[in-house]
Amino acid sequence: MFAEIITIGDELLIGQVVDTNSAWMAQQLNKIGIRVKQITSVSDSAAHIYKALSEAKERAEVVFITGGLGPTKDDITKSVLLDFFGGELQINEAALKNVHAIFEKYKRPVLPANHQQAAVPSSCEVILNLQGTAPGMYFFKDNCHYYSMPGVPFEMMAMMENSIIPKLTQTLNLPSVLHETILTAGIGESFLADLIETEEDQLPEHIKLAYLPKLGQVRLRLSAFGFNEQELKAELLIHKNKIVDKIGDYVIALSDINIEEVILNTLLAQNKTLSTAESCTGGYIGHLLTSIAGSSRVYQGGGITYSYELKESVLGVKSDTLSQTGAVSEETVTEMVLGALKAFNSDYAIACSGIAGPDGGTPEKPVGTVWIAVACKNKVVAKKYLFGNKRMQNIERTAVSAFYMLYQLMKDN
Amino acid sequence: MFAEIITIGDELLIGQVVDTNSAWMAQQLNKIGIRVKQITSVSDSAAHIYKALSEAKERAEVVFITGGLGPTKDDITKSVLLDFFGGELQINEAALKNVHAIFEKYKRPVLPANHQQAAVPSSCEVILNLQGTAPGMYFFKDNCHYYSMPGVPFEMMAMMENSIIPKLTQTLNLPSVLHETILTAGIGESFLADLIETEEDQLPEHIKLAYLPKLGQVRLRLSAFGFNEQELKAELLIHKNKIVDKIGDYVIALSDINIEEVILNTLLAQNKTLSTAESCTGGYIGHLLTSIAGSSRVYQGGGITYSYELKESVLGVKSDTLSQTGAVSEETVTEMVLGALKAFNSDYAIACSGIAGPDGGTPEKPVGTVWIAVACKNKVVAKKYLFGNKRMQNIERTAVSAFYMLYQLMKDN
């Protein structure tokens, strides 16, 4: 079964927004056995959208459309859909109720423009948007299913997860698709590929292996397609185990989770606590930990000690250490991590200090130089890294490296 | 002048890779007055690529193609180009020299597969790829210019910057494209649209207005196209000012920056400092601030006081306050923000405490309840918000709301 994705909006075509919706949708669709044939981004132009809709059904049986459903003048998708599928605009009561509910919640008056958002072509079936005011729409024409959704990622995602994916799996005769994920860290994509070349070559046509690299972590996803789910599951596990046997040392999880989740789960099971002392990451490590629901049972919090002053007052780093070795040094990051254990009274702690860039580098400590330390009551490990010159990347790499160092420290205990 | 971008590769269609090349190319092209009409991602299938090439020239005068030029079997772009533009494959000496140079650099033997990368259709003009082994190719057919580049971002970028963009600006008669952005906060998209309806209706054909909403902030982007840059600039500013006059109270910046940048710039100009005391945002506010280069000149750091214990030990929140009013209360968040001013010795401070969810809600304090406080030496403002039930969204909304509250406090001073 083939699908096509059409994303609508001038912001995509002037490069102001990167189209992340398509990749996310493609991932979800692949999981249920629907292959994406083409992704097309078009401008907010009626003729252009109309043409894209007609061309899509030549290639696909399901078409997903995002964007152009806002209340403003530049959002014209709905009128094009009306034109393409026929019928007339009429207020959908459920959608209108939803608009009112949302505005009530934020104590805002409903404007005519918002009222109009509940108007949909009579030729469609409404998909409620509990996250926003623009309803989703389902159409069927020339044996092709069309789903129109807002471009706001979390609104589109909620619609896909709660309404569209379930509907697709129920109404279409799709093969079973089973996935098994192996999370690895501390090894690059090409080296992994080298290690498991034989196992990869042995995979049958209906089992695909995808490498999903993400700054220092690589997820291996095995996807099996077929109509006998039990056989498929057994077969999939055999291949998964063969791979795990080859790369055991680098495997940190056998399910689709992040390294920070692995850490929180392990510490929770051991009834241990964690705190952080961040300089160059400026709160990003805490953010990653607290993005996970329930993290408060393990993560106590920490300090964003960006200035020298706070490194001293909050973590008790010695003023001499800072003046003699600088903020980006083994001595400072070690005092930071020990200070965190003490000040935040936790069993484990992470600390980092580095030059995120783009400025602030020196010949001895170029941009991208980062010191990371992890510690528990009886052990401290500090390590120096040299990343690149991109600020955001340095922040992300520091966080992932810190998590991996902590993971190894926990494993040694 | 219209362009079209075609990105080739299965990895895009299974969502393994987000297509960031297109957005980057679109930005560069807009800068030189070329408008991207459509972005199309297609699979590594000859028929599909061929069709995309033929359809593109119906819509555009310049077509940019990336991907599918690697040495492996699944990279078939070149053979399709040969098929589409005619001619025969012949080794290009300059390209071959480049391949050898690159392999020498890495002390690797040149394999036949690499040697073949220097073979290009006789119908093309080679664009040297100094970053990699796959040469770029330029074709001209049916009054349409085609540029084929590798999909590796930095190889593509170097080719665009060093060869293609200069060639386009020299050989094509391109209009100027000017953009003006207005950043607003504290007002929704539809309310803005209502306020500036007249001004929007008055916009000429060659000036477009786009609404770019992002959790509590809406960017208004005016784009003008024309050949007389000076006139265009003047005309654009007239319309920009008309809009600003109507929505003045909500305008927080007249350029394309975020509210956190506005805050950092303003505080830097006043030589003031900022600190944070985060509970439910768990470091996200600090992360947003420190994602901006140079933020250390204003942002001192802060505390991620996730636990009761840290709220007391780091910020000096009274144990009675926590036990009597709870962590999510006006009293607690007020003591947190005052504690931050003191403990982190800053001129301004932000504090927040809330229930991010999905669990932890009560009838009186449901998930999404957040208290935010901002303060300076002589003033404290605390406000209660009720967001939704999505953890990440609650974290993001809290951050944006906190920045807006701080912005208003700064304005009042």
Explain this structure.
2 copies of one chain form a homodimer. Chain A has 413 residues and is α/β, with parallel strands linked by helices. Chain A has 3 domains: 2-171, MoaB/Mog-like domain (Molybdenum Cofactor Biosythetic Enzyme, Chain A, 3-Layer(aba) Sandwich); 176-253, Alpha-Beta Plaits; 259-412, CinA-like (Maf protein, Alpha-Beta Complex), CATH 3.90.950. Chain A is 43% helix and 26% strand. Chain A is built from 16 helices and 17 strands. Chain A has helices spanning 10-13, 20-31, 46-59, 77-85, 93-105, 112-117, 153-171, 189-195, 197-201, 229-247, 259-269, 284-290, 308-315, 319-325, 330-343, 391-412; strands at residues 2-8, 35-42, 62-66, 89-91, 119-121, 125-127, 136-141, 144-149, 176-185, 207-214, 217-226, 251-253, 274-278, 299-305, 348-354, 369-376, 379-386. In chain A, the strands form 4 sheets. In chain A, strands 2-1-3-8-7-6 form a 6-stranded mixed β-sheet, sandwiched between helices. In chain A, β6 (125-127) and β7 (136-141) form a beta hairpin. The longest helix of chain A is centred in the C-terminal third of the chain and has 22 residues, at 391-412. Chain A is globular, with a radius of gyration of 26 Å. Chain A starts with a strand and ends with a helix. The relative contact order of chain A is 0.08. The mean pLDDT of chain A is 93. At the A-B interface, α1, α2, β2, α3 and β10 of A face α2, β2, α3, α8 and β10 of B.
